[in-house]
Amino acid sequence: MLTLVTGAAGFIGSLLVERLLADRRAVVGIDCFRDYYDPAAKRNNIAASLRDPLFTLLEADLSGDFEPALQGCIPHGERVTVYHLAAQPGVRRSWGANFGDYVRDNVTATQKLLEWASESGCVTRFVNASSSSVYGASPQTPLSEAGSLPAPVSPYGVTKLAAEHLVGLYSGRSGIPSVSFRFFTVYGPRQRPDMAFHRFILAVLRGEPVQVLDDGRQTRDFTFVSDVVEGLYRAGDSPVCGVYNLGGGNRVTLLEAVGEIENATGAKAILSFAPAQPGDARDTLADTTRLERDLGWKPGVPLQEGIRRETEWIRAAYGL
Ligand SMILES: NC(=O)c1ccc[n+]([C@@H]2O[C@H](COP(=O)([O-])OP(=O)(O)OC[C@H]3O[C@@H](n4cnc5c(N)ncnc54)[C@H](O)[C@@H]3O)[C@@H](O)[C@H]2O)c1
Questions:
Q1: Contact between 71 and 86 (Cβ < 8 Å)
Q2: Fold for domain 2-187+223-249+285-300?
Q3: What is the DSSP string of 183-202?
Q4: Domain coordinates of the chain in residue numbers?
Q5: Tens digit of each residue's pLDDT, the chain (320 residues)
Q6: Which of 22, 37, 253, 299 is positioned for an S-S bond with 249, CB 3.0–4.6 A?
Q7: What residue's CA is closest to ligand 1, atom 20?
Q8: pTM above 0.85, yes or no
Q9: From atom 23 of ligand 1, which residue's Cα is the shortest distance away?
Q10: Residue 102 C-alpha to ligand 1 middle, in angstroms?
Q11: Closest Cα to residue 146, out of 308, 278, 289?
Q12: Which member of 156, 170, 187, 233 is catalytic?
């Protein structure tokens, strides 16, 4: 049994690879090291896994001609579980001229991977990383898979919703059991540098202003990355299919999160406020009843502990 992880050098993908290798699973990772943020950080993420003989990294672009090289990494007759995490992330940059990058990496790449999965005959399960962004500004909380109509408020959310639909469509056609997980603001060591906690912790440690958008009273249901990885890991061996919320358990306002960062760093935040950005949801809160029932998943890391671990990692990564 082989596991294929796309976006293997990214924040969540690289930690999923480590989790699989720790369980002595053979893993093929695909990544094309997009420069959405410094590719050197991605090389660091994957460095330890590259020393493991059970890991193979394929540097390939899923929106291009990756199929022959990928097929060459899969022994004849091997069964493959796919985790699809490759994407162009980020809500705010998805407007305007950048939209083409989102269509390429979130829609075209997903469709090409699904074509390959259907045609190759070796894929037995397909797990897709989706996003709470598909819910948009839904006034209903908590957000539930059956009760909240997806209505993205960013082009990013539109492409993630399109990818979810493609996964469902191809699953119906090919018979490959598939699941899309809607992640809720993931944080922890290796978090992308454009994400709020990464920027906030770094600014507080450097004594620089923390830029809070809007009034800071908007809420997010934060998820520590090891909880997301655990949900993904379990889903690989389970029969769950369809769409599931994965995440949450730590809903706070941004200002409350800054308070936790002050506790973890032992320093006072200098706040600077800026207007809300188009595409940002005001509040998110995950209803994870279905996931708890079908996968036995519950968030395990409380916010205080998670922020402490991310702060430790940022201190080490930046030498602070
Ligand atoms: N981090 C979060 O809070 C969050 C929230 C919701 C959903 N997600 C989803 O989780 C997944 C992982 O997110 P992340 O935060 O780890 O992002 P990330 O940017 O750290 O990782 C994504 C990786 O995919 C790679 N990639 C992009 N396009 C590719 C292509 N065409 N071919 C091959 N590789 C490609 C990038 O180089 C990158 O290393 C994404 O699908 C994202 O949409 C993340």
A1: no
A2: Rossmann fold (3.40.50)
A3: E--EESTT--TTSHHHHHHH
A4: 2-187+223-249+285-300
A5: 999 999 999 999 999 999 999 999 999 999 999 999 999 999 999 999 999 999 999 999 999 999 999 999 999 999 999 999 999 999 999 999 999 999 999 999 999 999 999 999 999 999 999 999 999 988 778 999 998 999 999 999 999 999 999 999 999 999 999 999 999 999 999 999 999 999 999 999 999 999 998 999 999 899 999 999 999 999 998 999 999 999 888 889 999 999 999 999 999 999 999 998 887 778 889 999 999 999 999 999 999 999 999 999 999 999 99
A6: 299
A7: 10
A8: yes
A9: 7
A10: 11
A11: 289
A12: 156
Phi and psi at 282, nearest 5°, equal -75, -50
Name the residue with tokens 């460095």: 47
The answer, yes or no, to whether any atom of ligand 1 lies below 6 A from the CB of 131, is: yes
Q: Which tokens go with 281? A: 């949801």
3-class SS of residue 255: helix
| Separation between Cα atoms, residue 246 and residue 243, nearest integer Å | 10
Catalytic site residue 156? yes
Residues 184/132, Cβ–Cβ less than 8 Å: yes
**Ligand 1 site, residue 12, Cβ cutoff 6 A:** yes
CA distance 280 to 277: 6
**By three-state DSSP, how is residue 235 classified?**
helix
Contact 243/164 with Cβ under 8 angstroms?
Answer: yes
